[in-house]
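ok here's Late embryogenesis abundant protein LEA-2 subgroup domain-containing protein, seq below lol
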Amino acid sequence: MHPGPYNPPPGAYPPPGPYGHNAPRYGHPGGGSRRGGCSCLKWYCCCCCCLFITVVLFLAAIVITLIIIKPQVPKYNIDDFAVKTFNITPDFSLKSHIVVTVKADNPNKYIEFEYGHAKQPTDNFVKVMYSNVELCSGAIPDFTQPKSNVTMMNIDLKGDLKKDDWAEGSGESLADKLKNNDKIPLVVSTKLPVRIKIGSAEIDNEPTVISLNCTMNVKNFGTGKKVEISDTKYEVGLYVNKKFVKLNGFKFF
Ligand SMILES: *[C@@H]1O[C@H](CO)[C@@H](O)[C@H](O)[C@H]1NC(C)=O
Ligand SMILES: *[C@@H]1O[C@H](CO)[C@@H](O)[C@H](O)[C@H]1NC(C)=O
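and the structure came out like this:
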């Protein structure tokens, strides 16, 4: 007889156990518990796989949603100043009424923006500053900007300054610049609460507060004149949980 599959050479299998039969393959002195350990390991692997697949699918869903929705930051531009009243008297009291036109461009096909509805009134303002003196101020009206929409917001700003409200010499320097029709450096400082809406779903319950500061030079500034705006520079930031985050790395404009 040659050794073959059915005729194993002697010694190919372990000799019979002490009680005349083979030792159980996964046998343990304690018996049986190792088998449970293996299925536990399988179950664990299975769970890991499921979790991994779920995470991958979830991330893929987010990426696909973002590709479809293509969220874009809205663009804001100060388009015009209509100076209704701007009279500085020889004793430096100043009554002013300016209507600022802000062009808000929402390029998103699926996202709406809801402006205003501030929790605190101090979270919604527009101020015009001249060398750290507030000349006039107002608030942005509550409104919802639809998808793919450009809206001109007209914001009424009013101010009533007295002699003592000016910082050192700023009243004189403003009066001089107005008289000589020089460029006047202004800062338009804004805080604006915004809520994001996708479809009918509102994403944020609390509005996000955007801070927008625009430094500029204006010429031809005075009651009823056509104001010329130049050298505009924008700074943007967000208040997230009352913490200020500057967003100047972003391309807004
Ligand atoms: C943009 O939205 C405003 C406010 O809802 C609306 O009055 C205006 O007609 C819209 N403009 C365009 C171009 O659709
Ligand atoms: C805008 O100016 C105000 C007052 O100076 C400041 O508190 C705010 O942080 C500024 N915002 C940005 C985006 O720089």
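fwiw Residues 3 and 9 are 5 Å apart (CA to CA). kinda neat tbh
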